[in-house]
Amino acid sequence: QVQLVESGGGLVQPGGSLRLSCAASGFTFNYYAIGWFRQAPGKEREGVSCISSSDGNTYYADSVKGRFTISRDNVKNTVYLQMNSLKPEDIAVYYCAADCENPQYWGQGTQVTVSS
Length: 116
What we know:
The chain has no helices and eleven strands. With 116 residues, it is mainly β. The chain has strands at residues 3-7, 10-12, 18-25, 34-39, 46-51, 58-60, 68-73, 78-83, 92-98, 105-106, 110-114.
């Protein structure tokens, strides 16, 4: 069955870094753009970053541009989100999804907490 499994979240101090991973299975991974989304407490889910299926085109929300980097490995069926210079406003549950425009499959999420 379709699975997207996020990992790599945790507690980090402001200014620190985390690398999230999204491991996919059960669908043709390299046909899909893959996106990272996040939902902070009391807020709606928002798009963070997206990477196209094959040509490497990327999108970043203004709030993370210059700090986050998305990449993918179509052999390992995995997408990564390198998050640097983390801020308290980055606190959220981070989800990956297949198809950034109309997400079809979602992972269960991984918590990112930024606190001193």
